[in-house]
Automatic annotation (TrEMBL):
One of its GO terms (molecular function) is adenosylhomocysteinase activity. CDD domains: SAHH. Its EC number is 3.13.2.1. The lineage of its organism: Archaea, Methanobacteriati, Methanobacteriota, Stenosarchaea group, Halobacteria. This is Adenosylhomocysteinase. Its cofactor is NAD(+). May play a key role in the regulation of the intracellular concentration of adenosylhomocysteine. NAD(+) binds at residues 160-162, 194, 223-230, 246, 281, 302-304, 349, 358. Belongs to the adenosylhomocysteinase family. The keyword Hydrolase applies.
Amino acid sequence: MTDTEYPPISEQLENLESAREEGRRKMDWATQHMPICERVREEFVANQPFAGERIGMAMHVEAKTAILVETLAEGGAEVAVTGCNPLSTHDDVSAALDTHENITSYAKRGVDDDEYYAAIEAVIAHEPTVTVDDGMDLVAAIHEDYPELIDGIVGGCEETTTGVHRLRAMDADGALEYPVFAVNDTPMKRLFDNVHGTGESSLASIAMTTNLSWAGKNVVVAGYGYCGKGVAKKASGQNANVIVTEVEPRRALEAHMEGYEVMPMSDAAEIGDVFLTTTGNRDVVIGEHFEKMKDGVLLANAGHFDIEIDLEALDDLAVDRFEARDGVEAYEMDDGRKLNVIAEGRLVNLAAPVSLGHPVEVMDQSFGVQAVCVREMLENSDEYDAGVHDVPDDLDKEIAEIKLEAEGVDFDSLTDTQRDYMGSWDHGT
Ligand code: RBV
């Protein structure tokens, strides 16, 4: 492995031994609830599909992600990993990972922009043959600053909606020079992770951070994609009155037919108690909205980047700001109203001090898909040209079947007659 200037986590922490122990304890807990990754790991240990490969990763480095990292390393890869958000890393887990002989972890919580990108460069210095990204920062850095490495890269995998969106834009510009799987877009990922994972973990993080109730609140959910649907459903399940804002007419109608109030953000701003953005876009809650908001509102973001709530505008409007609680910054307006921003407007389910990310069970599914996608990319690299690729459906089904078996859920299969019927067109009344 190449020496890099940015040091691995083990060279950055005091109390390294106790950090490693605590990180390992968190991973031991997670793995007990990750039967898919366990099964895939057994297969990888036996077959060593990644022998001789170098995998570079930029993800939320906490216990569940660590299980994916280990799963890949135990399949024979050398893995270099860093964070994909300055606040989502658990240093103890990062330290525990870094003890593995095939893993180098550069992830550290609370890094500034320079350190964040230095750690990404440190991963790239390992000259990965495969990249695994959450948000596309690795792919972007390689294309912009290290294009000479692209020839040696077999392909990549992308975890999240925003990353896939960026990759598709890059592909449309003809700028994406190696194949990448859109892991986010599989049913086993987005119907569970985006919906249930985002819904449960965002609400849990906000509740734990504020100690406030959902019941009886007006909760404004910006964006009714998969994540917004999850947040709206779970908030409604906690007895909140849910208001949805949307820009896409069919999604707005879907939300309306689901029983939510739908209105523009400029109207919702006046009545919301909690605002939760899930759009993946920028400037969703802006100056004119802050001016109308009630005293004491909570503002949080569950989208990948911290640009959905315009914090610069909020800061300009504020006459004072202070840390109201751990993870809560209060912005005081000149009329005395206080607007409370949670986790600096970064994705709240991972970036608040108490956040733990999505629940273990859904990440087992997402990371199970990731693991078999890395295997597929290396096994059948000839089949994938530069560009964004859908994950083969059989791989996604393989993960679903492992999960159902682990849950002890049996299900039906088609008879031959049924299969013939479904494949034929010559039947009618
Ligand atoms: N996510 N990871 C976690 N490791 O705890 N929680 C959520 C974790 C992923 C999720 O798959 C989503 O697509 C992405 O984070 C957004 O950055």
